[in-house]
Write a structure and sequence with these properties.
By secondary structure, this protein is an alpha+beta fold. It is built from 3 helices and 7 strands. The strands form 3 sheets. The protein has a 3-stranded antiparallel beta sheet with strand order 2-7-4. This is Protein kinase domain-containing protein.
Length: 187
């Protein structure tokens, strides 16, 4: 839930930047959570699998996310600028999973097309488009943190014209749970 909440926050941040939402990222329709009570869950004896938020013995792992703590970030920087939005500044950082009343989270995005693959990687026009959307993302002050083929999908049919490149990008970047944001402001 914590990682998904962080990803939702990044989409929300990018949605406020006109040149990103609907041009280099899919539209985000929302982040939703609900709790499940014990009686709504299938009894563990009848479940052929463990719930995704629990370990093999059914207890919560001590750590339920794999994001760098701010202390680890400080190792790379002399000091963390106040504009850098880090994990410990999130309200979700203090959230504690409750095995008796699990929380389920869903992030709903606009449906994109197939993922980027090795065949796409051979096309110089595709590579140019990818370079342009990475540049646009950087201009928004976002470092993706997990950029790879599976985090690129074909743009939805509703993708808008990019104001920087005066074209409709054929690709969108997704999966922002490891992203870093530096709020550069209007300047």
């Amino acid at each position: 839930c914590r990682n998904l909440a962080r990803e939702a926050w990044i989409y929300n941040y990018l949605d406020r930047i006109p040149q990103s939402s609907g041009t280099i990222i899919p539209q985000c329709y929302g982040f939703f959570t609900t709790t499940l009570t014990e009686r709504k869950l299938i009894p563990s004896a009848k479940r052929p699998y463990n719930l995704p938020w629990s370990s093999v013995d059914g207890e919560h792992a001590k750590r339920d996310d794999d994001l760098c703590d701010d202390v680890e970030v400080e190792e790379f920087l002399d000091e963390i600028p106040s504009e850098l939005i880090t994990k410990e500044r999130s309200a979700w950082n203090s959230w504690v999973p409750d095995s008796k009343n699990p929380l389920v989270a869903v992030l709903i995005l606009e449906k994109g097309g197939p993922m980027y693959n090795e065949i796409d990687d051979q096309d110089p026009l595709v590579k140019k488009d990818i370079k342009q959307i990475i540049r646009d993302l950087s201009l928004c002050g976002v470092a993706h943190g997990d950029f790879r083929m599976s985090n690129l999908v074909r743009s939805p049919t509703t993708t808008e014209v990019c104001p920087h490149h005066k074209c409709v990008h054929k690709w969108n970047i997704i999966d922002f749970n490891r992203a870093w944001v530096l709020d550069l402001g209007v300047e």
